[in-house]
């Protein structure tokens, strides 16, 4: 059960911990996250057992550093090497579910994509936090969004959807999403971190939630730690929102 009526959620594409200097350093990523102290973090481009990141279990390592519970799901697996998304939570998780997203032309031509949903208990009831990383290929994204929303159609409680969507707020697909979802209202770009001109990372929500504040974390450390900047939002639950 969430102890307070507020929940701080972050979404962050960590590029397997590789900063703008080319070095893989999860310590920097952990420090960026710790500065905000979120309750839940949705991470994209996370490695597990890969040589390029010293075979680390990155979700597990970040969770240990931050005192959180890790949930990792691979989108790509080759032997013992995995690459995917992870959600870290300070709140006990009641359920997790993985959703494979459709691609065109098979794996040879497209990178497999997926989503990860965790369910936690809030003051107003259950809350689903969904993490995803959509394709860089424009023709794939509409089908991936449609598939994900169909999976979420039966979820009757509040939902927060976060991740690297690879679309800006000006795109038609994003405007379509705002027909049923609400934006947290943060201003500023999240990519590329050195000169953040575009917002590719988003936090959307539906249900009886309200937003107390939302911002892109644009600090000197965040600009070095990954090629994306994290986005964070504070949500209020039913009791406070009413």
Characterise the protein shown here.
This protein is of the alpha+beta class and 242 residues long. It has a domain at 6-91 and 162-241: Deoxyribonuclease I, Chain A. The chain contains 6 helices and 12 strands. The strands form 2 sheets. Strands 3-4-2-1-12-11 form a 6-stranded mixed β-sheet. A 6-stranded mixed β-sheet has the order 5-6-7-8-10-9, with helices on one face. Helix 1 (26-36) crosses helix 2. The radius of gyration is 17 Å and the shape is globular. The mean pLDDT is 93.
Please give the radius of gyration in angstroms. Answer: 17 Å
CATH fold naming of the domain at 6-91 and 162-241: Deoxyribonuclease I, Chain A
Q: Sheet bearing the most strands, described?
A: 6 strands, mixed
| DSSP summary: helix tally | 6
Q: Topology as H/E string?
A: EHEHEEEEEHEHEEEHEH
**CATH arch. level architecture of the domain at 6-91 and 162-241:** 4-Layer Sandwich
Query: What's the arrangement of strands in the largest beta sheet?
Result: 3-4-2-1-12-11
